[in-house]
Amino acid sequence: MALVTSEKMLLDAREGGYAVGAFNVENMEMVKAVLAAAEELHAPVMLQTTPSTVKYGSLETFAAIVTAEAKKASVPVALHLDHGSSFDLAVRAIKEGYTSIMIDGSHESFEANIEVSKKVVEAARPNGIPVEAELGKVGGKEDDLEAEADTNTDPLEAKEFVERTGITSLAVAIGTAHGFYSGTPVLDKERLSEIRKVVSIPLVLHGASGLSDEDVKDCVKRGICKVNFATELRVAYTDGIKEVLKEKPDTFDPKTLGKAGMEKVKELVKGRILVCGSDNKVIK
Ligand SMILES: [Zn+2]
Fold first, then answer.
1. pLDDT (tens digit per residue) in 190-205
2. Which has the least CB within 10 A, 48, 205, 261, 264?
3. How far apart are the CA of 244 and the centre of ligand 1, in A?
4. DSSP string covering 41-57, please?
């Protein structure tokens, strides 16, 4: 079917007590692998690209690939700009066919974050496009952004932020980090529950690669409606290719390598969809 926006998808998730899996894709093979997994499990799904990914492949190319592949799928698919780094990039993404936008002003001051998020909302909402923004800082490295220590989202600030910006979903910082974890992450789940009490729009969890299934499930129970998975998909894809090359170092056909990568990504994504509880949640 045609691409849908993430708005109803996330509201349905909030009502149903599950989360939509949002998977970062870097090429056609990863797009196909994520959609194959979603199709098999009858799960609504979000595909997303970061600014560095669109710099590599361009917005219009990703929009074209995802639109074409989604057309063949029977599950709802949204294409999301992950960690949108500027107003201009957000507007260009909408123009190229993205159906969901994140503007990330979390590295700015509270007021500057509100200002840029609100500006994107004002440009996106007349086009029916939902907007995710982030308050507080998710640790680790996402794309070219590096966050400093302890900057979990403050519940009262979150309430004010949502009211003043008009965003449709909020990414919260509760101790997760982008990339893989070196130790066991300590999540402030109470903080998440506190935010849920004062913010009614769908909440988003970033930095879920490497979290235990139990932690993800607990966060979903406490109000997370979208979970982002990025790093582990890249690892799975590359692992598939490495395995082929280890066994047959002379392999030169990109199709052979791509198939091996796709298979690994598909299996991983299926597992994550089950953890999010979004399987069999295609609501007509
Ligand atoms: Zn993120």
1. 999 999 999 999 999 9
2. 264
3. 30
4. HT--EEEEE-HHHHHHH
